[in-house]
Amino acid sequence: MIHHNLPASAMKDVVTHNFSKNHVFFSTTRGNYHYPTHETPHLLVANFRESGQYVLNTRKVTASDSHFYMLNPGDKLEIDLRKKHALQTFLIAFDQTFVTHVFQTATSSAESLLDDGLAGTSATLSVPAVPFLMNAHISDLLYSTLQSSQEDEILAEILLGFFPMLHDTRNRLENLKAIKRSTREEIYRRIFVAEEFMREHLSETISLDQIAAAACMNRFHFLKLFKEMRHMTPHHFLTSLRLEQAYQQLKAGRFSVTEVCYAAGFQSPASFSHLFKRRYGCVPSALRK
User: Fold this and answer.
1) In sequence order, which ranges of 5-150 are alpha helices (DSSP H)?
2) Which InterPro entries match (predicted)?
3) Which tops the pLDDT comparison, 171 or 149?
């Protein structure tokens, strides 16, 4: 069911953890919007054009063009949007049975599905309270729900696109040596902020101290935890982001190799060419032919 507005504050019976069908709430809002703390279903929270402010299980979080949240049934969420400019908000409340069936289908073997469908499967979906990177595939599917009469099929595609992201996130959380789950999730959130800082400043010369400061850590603590979680240094991660941006710009063919080199934050065309060839197996100029 599609709703072209956000739920009114009195509609606690609509946004609840007891859902009998999927609901997509979408709105472009200006000014203030507040929805009091409530227990959620499986709920995807996404914002575009501006960032939206929320309180998730007593912790302040934001959703934006770059990241979204997926909540578990029973999570506590307060919505507090205060924007002068247009803010686009998606709240997708999933029926729990729908999520379970899609998740079981995605995690069951082909043989078991042919033998007895979903009978006997016990897969359940539990999502850590951390941000997930928004990508073009998920973004396109979100907007597609507004233009299709088959929104459940699109919502299933959103979940199927989300599950690999969830798998990768769980693996990174398990890489961290902290004992408490809450500590691992806090470390993950801080490193995620640092990664966003790197993405936003690719064309600039940024230091490890600046990146660590974005995560509210000192450089040595940040370096240790980043390597634990990512199995690479922040420098290697930043270089990888820069090479990915350069690759996409070269494929588009709008800029010269030198322009792409400096726009991606590389200081030397020779160094850029060497790193690019090692990563992609060809020199940068080959992509423009």
Assistant:
1) 96-107, 110-116, 136-144
2) Homeodomain-like_sf (IPR009057), HTH_AraC (IPR018060), Tscrpt_reg_AraC-type_HTH (IPR020449)
3) 171
> Could you give the residue ranges of the DSSP H alpha helices within 72-207?
96-107, 110-116, 136-144, 151-175, 181-200
CA 123 to chain centre: 22
pTM score of the predicted model? 0.84
Same domain, 149 and 12: yes
Write out the H or E segment, with its range, that includes residue 82. strand 76-94
Query: What is the tally of structural domains in the chain?
Result: 3
218 and 243 fall within a common domain? no
What is the rounded (10 degree) CA torsion for 45, 46, 51, 56?
10
Confidence at residue 20, expressed as pLDDT on a 0 to 100 scale? 60
Give the span between the Cα atoms of 52 and 110, in whole angstroms. 40
Could you read off the pLDDT of 182-237 as tens digits, one per residue?
A: 999 999 999 999 999 999 999 999 999 999 999 999 999 999 999 999 999 999 99
CATH for 263: 1.10.10.60
Are 162 and 211 within one domain? no
Q: How confident is the model at residue 120 (pLDDT cuts 50, 70, 90)?
A: very low
Domain containing residue 201: 176-231
Q: Residue 242 burial (CB < 10 Å; 0-12/13-18/19+)? A: buried
State residue 109's pLDDT score. 60
CA distance linking residue 5 with residue 27, whole number of Å: 5
- Alpha-carbon distances of 36 from 33, 66, 77, 272, rounded to whole Å: 10, 25, 8, 51
C-alpha separations of 231 from 133, 162, 173, 175 in Å: 19, 22, 12, 9
What are the phi and psi torsion angles at 40 (to 5°)?
-105, 160
pLDDT tens string 235-279: 999 999 999 999 999 998 889 999 999 999 999 999 999 999 999
